Amino acid sequence: MMTKKRILLSEAEINKRVIKIEEKKQKLERKLDKYNDQYILFSQKKNYRRSVTINKKRGRLISKIQHCKNDLEFLRSKDVEKMNIFKRINNNFKRMPYSKQKQIFGILFVIPWFIGFVIFFATSLGTTVWWSLNAMVPKQGGGFDYLFNGVQNYVDLFTKATLSGTTVLEVLTSSIIDILIDLPTIIIFSIFIAVLLNTKFKGHQLVKAIFFIPVIYNMTVINNTMSGAFGTLFGAEMDAGFQISGTFANFLMQIGIGNGLVEFLMSAVDRIFMIINKSGIQIIMFIAALQSIPNHLYESAKVEGATKYEMFWKVTIPMVSPMILTTLVYTIVDSFGSSDIMNFLTVNSQGTTMATNQPGMYSAISIVYFLVNLLIIVFGFLLLRKRVFYYD
Amino acid sequence: MIKTLKIGFSKLKRVINQFQEDMKSPTKKMIFRNKVVGIISNILKYVLVVGLCFVILYPLILQLAIAFRSPTDVNNTSILWIPGEFSIKNFEVAVIALKYFDALKNTLILSVGVTMLQLVSTSLAGYAFARLKFRGSGILFGLALFTIVVPQTVISLPLLRNLTDMKLVGKPITLFLMAGLGMGIKSGIFIYLFRQFYRGIPVELEEAASIDGANPFTVFWRIMLPNAKGAIITVALLAFVWQWNDYYFTTLFVSRSNLDFVTLTTQQVSVLYGLQQALTDAGVWGLMGQDVTKNPLFTSMILNTSGIMVMLPLLVLYFFVQKMFVQGIERSGIVG
User: Fold this and answer.
1) Which segments within chain A are labelled E, that is strand?
2) B88 or B10, which is more confident
3) 8 A C-beta contact, residue B197 and residue B228
4) What pairing do the DSSP bridges indicate for beta strands A162-163 and A166-167?
5) How crowded is residue B172: how many other Cβ atoms within 10 Å of its Cβ?
6) Cα distance between residue A354 and residue B151, in whole Å
7) Among A85, A277, B108, B141, which is disulfide-ready with A214 (CB 3.0 to 4.6 Å)?
8) CB distance from B257 to chain A under 8 Å?
9) Which tops the pLDDT comparison, A4 or B157?
């Protein structure tokens, strides 16, 4: 085969090929010698038929040898472009089908995240689980002795552990109740605000800008402000102006609306500031979801004679329902940080005794808390799953 | 005089008659009713919006009111919202107590670096999970979602020990490393956002590019990223803000063992715990008498002022990017 086109090879590859071709050539030449002998033999015996077939084979061999010679000549000439390994990989890569290229890049793109996942997340989570199953006794000179004791930590957690007089169970239930109150309030509030902000009215740009400010608020700082000496001073002044909410609550009680509902409403009103500040991201998510609702749905609804109220319930809510699921998860996760259970766990500037002396207990608490939250998420998921509508 | 009144009266009568006439026809009645409902709902809307805006801005207004109050007016009860005399003395004290410029520099370096790295790692992973499917990518995405659900406190203690073993604690590079490897603050959420976003970009764009001979990376770099501006801005702002306001990570992995490295938030919190000591260290007594600085209201005042100084750069930044941010969200179309 006469290779006229330029081929791209590395130097080592060329040498390898030269050796290979030379071997092949030698083999062919040996065969040719054999054929030559046979040819002479048959022609002497006047066996013409066989001598002709041998001659044919000889001709083929000669041409093959010539090919090898040509190849060698070509490989040794300067025509061969020498290239490094990267170019070759690139070259091979280009010849791959696109779907395979995608897979390779997919793996490449995920690798950094996966390394981080293994180093920082998976090992730590595993260690936490392992610690929670051990009684960890501090050794002298740092480090811990591990004594495997099964679920003893979890049992102790619910029977012994206390923090400033409250048991873990109490804190856990109160924080769960907090989440259960906050969750629907935040989601309903943020849908409401998102719908409000999504309409165009005078000054909606400014209002949008203001509503996203809670996203950049530093809650540590804000809480300090609100609960500091000056904050309470101002708060008292403000409360005088908000007597009306108390009156309203009394009114509701008197007309016989359930006690529980009133309490729920009142606690929601009390939390209005916290709720607004917690729902910044959720509002963003819902606005994005609202923006992605195709306009023709509303148009056809209008043609059918739907009122705005009906459109909200029959078009908007189903279309943003997948996002409700997402915000549900986000809200629960977000409430981890501000929960009371954190008081057991936070490593503040003094360093809690729990973290330094009883890592086993610490791990057990955090895992229990995580599982409880996971339970809430799963519960919410199951509750909403059938009602979620996917428009595709 | 009477004549004009009469004319006016008859005009009014005519208008009322006209109105009554109009009310008889159902369509006009409907239009009128809609108009009234529209106006009332508009008024309600504005009242609500203004009220909520006030609730949101309340702490900010509060902080500003306190920050500009002169230290000599601490106990003056006649002054509440508007300071008697504007003074920037509180700011001077807060700058000293916070080690402001040092902390600001550190915070900026940390926030910018972490934001960049998080953008790179999460957008790559998000794109891979959205479009570059390979065997097992579904499981890996499940794991990525799992990282969102697991609270940081669950893994922080072993993580701290591992990092100590790796001799990484106390250096800001730890945070950079975690951000770069997709395990920074709430990286899982960013991966999710990017994935949702890239899924929304039509496949035809990618196919057209691949037919023209682009490889997957070129497709990502030339076509997907420029189209993902909305998601990038959203993620960048959130990453920046969360790093800026982060106390937990920064203290745990850097500031607790390296007291020289302070960021605005960690410094603010440490000022909260030991303001008097900070004031003594900073030599604020030179500025004003001890009787003033020992006053608890003064402490609160300085805390508030330092609080607003921590948030101020962010607020200024937000002021500039707010339009882009809002538009970015609206165009991003992230749907769960």
Assistant:
1) 8-9, 81-82, 134-138, 144-148, 162-163, 166-167
2) B10
3) yes
4) antiparallel
5) 19
6) 18
7) A277
8) no
9) B157
Q: Coil, strand or helix: which one is A82? A: strand
**DSSP string across B141-200:** HHHHHHHHHS-HHHHHHHHHHHHHHTT-TTSTHHHHHHHHTT-STTHHHHHHHHHHHHHH
- Subunit contact B268:A221, Cβ cutoff 8 A: yes
Which residue of chain B comes nearest to A324, CA vs CA? B336
Phi, psi of A319, rounded to the nearest 5 degrees: -70, -30
The C-alpha atoms of residue B111 and residue B107 are separated, in whole angstroms, by 6
Hey, which residues does A137 pair with through a beta bridge? Answer: A145
Alpha-carbon span B259 to B267, nearest angstrom: 10
Q: Does A147 touch chain B (CB under 8 A)?
A: no
Rounded to a whole number, what is the distance in Å from the CA of A10 to chain B's nearest CA? 24
> Which ipTM was obtained for this model?
0.80
Give the pairing of strands A81-82 and A8-9: parallel
The answer to whether A236 contacts chain B (CB < 8 Å) is: no
Judge: B301–A359 Cβ closer than 8 Å, yes or no. no
Q: Please answer yes or no on whether A209 and B326 come within 8 Å at the CB atom.
A: yes
Using alpha carbons only, what angle is made at residue A114 by residues A108 and A117, rounded to the nearest 5 degrees? 165
> Could you say which of A109, A287, A373 has the minimum Cβ distance to residue B128?
A109
Sign of torsion, CA A268 A272 A274 A275? positive
Pick from A106, A230, A288: which is nearest to B304 by CB?
A230
The count of other CB atoms within 10 Å of the CB of residue A198 is 17
Q: Cβ(A83)–Cβ(A10) under 8 Å? A: yes
- State which amino acid sits at residue A40: I
- Please say whether the beta carbons of A3 and A71 come within 8 A: yes
Once rounded to an integer, what is the mean pLDDT over residues A193-208?
83
Under 8 Å between Cβ of A283 and A190? yes
| Class of residue A272 by CB neighbours under 10 A (exposed 0-12, middle 13-18, buried 19+) | middle
Q: Which of B155, B191, B215 sits opposite A128 (nearest CB)?
A: B155
* Cα separation, A383 vs A272, whole angstroms: 26
Residue B283 has pLDDT above 90, yes or no: no
